[in-house]
Design brief:
The chain is of the alpha/beta class. It folds into two domains: about 150 residues, NAD(P)-binding Rossmann-like Domain (Rossmann fold), CATH 3.40.50; about 80 residues, Orthogonal Bundle (6-phosphogluconate dehydrogenase C-terminal fold), CATH 1.10.3660. The protein is built from ten helices and nine strands.
Length: about 270
């Protein structure tokens, strides 16, 4: 039986953690407890139970670990020293290889909200960040799924064994390419650049720690995806002009149907 008021903990108040906090703040179903070493004073506007002490989360029913990729496992290990086995703990990391098979004394759920921004930190967080976005989970859980839905997102059970390769294709390689494309263009090229270059290199402004975490923890999948992209280009080169045009038109049509007017993914298999 689900409690009438759930105690929700948030460890880390960057873009994702801050958005979870702002998205749940004021909802009568939840009492929020948040932990941050740098943003807890800003968070006090939205939540009275804020501190820098992670042990303040010990009585929570569910905890979201919203730290950087590099700090996810150390945070989980700290939580493991004092949490009850019934406590639900969900990470939000964009790489899962180092988390697969991890066993803790609490109910650990791998999760990943497919929402974000090139901006970072608590100031960039927003209550509607997750609206109409997919939120990947590796197992069903009513409590977690209720919170995800209350944040406006869509819970989607996903095989985390293939998660990192999928993210390399749709997030990690695009982010790294965005950085490298910007760096590749010389100053004279940048001088004449317009909206195409602006949109293609938007992710070059992403948080540097996030980019580092991607390439350190998912390098093999990023490299595999880059090699597949080169193969796609080589295939394209060998097509006739008519075949190239037909391919471009087909891809353009699919891309046009993938997002709604608000920029949310409505793709269906």
């Amino acid at each position: 039986m689900q409690k009438s008021v759930l105690k929700v903990g948030i460890a880390g108040l960057g873009l994702i953690g801050g958005s979870v906090l702002k998205g749940l703040a004021g909802k009568k179903d939840y009492e929020i407890f948040a932990v941050s070493n740098s943003s807890y004073t800003k968070a006090q506007k939205f939540c009275k139970n804020v501190s820098a002490n992670i042990e303040s989360l010990k009585d929570c029913d569910i905890i979201f670990v919203c730290t950087s990729i590099e700090k996810t496992i150390p945070t989980l290990e700290k939580l493991n020293t004092f949490l009850d086995k019934s406590t639900i703990v969900a990470d939000v990391a964009s790489v899962k290889a180092n988390l697969l098979g991890k066993k803790y004394g609490f109910n650990f759920i791998l999760s990943h909200p497919m929402a974000g921004s090139e901006e970072s930190g608590f100031d960039a967080s927003e209550a509607e960040l997750f609206l109409d976005s997919k939120w990947l989970i590796n197992k069903n859980n009513k409590t977690l799924e209720k919170i995800i839905k209350d944040l406006g997102a869509i819970p989607l059970k996903t095989d985390m064994e293939v998660h990192d390769l999928m993210c390399a294709k749709i997030s990690h390689l695009p982010s790294i390419l965005s950085v490298l494309l910007f760096d590749l263009a010389d100053d004279n090229s940048k001088l004449i650049a317009s909206s195409g270059f602006r949109d293609t290199t938007r992710l070059a402004m992403s948080n540097s720690s996030l980019l580092l975490g991607m390439i350190k923890n998912n390098e093999k999948n990023i490299e595999k995806t880059l090699n597949d992209l080169v193969d796609k280009f080589n295939y394209l080169k060998n097509l006739s002009d008519n075949e190239k045009i037909n391919l471009f038109k087909s891809i353009a049509q699919k891309r046009a149907q993938m997002y709604n007017k608000n920029g949310k993914n409505i793709f269906k298999i």
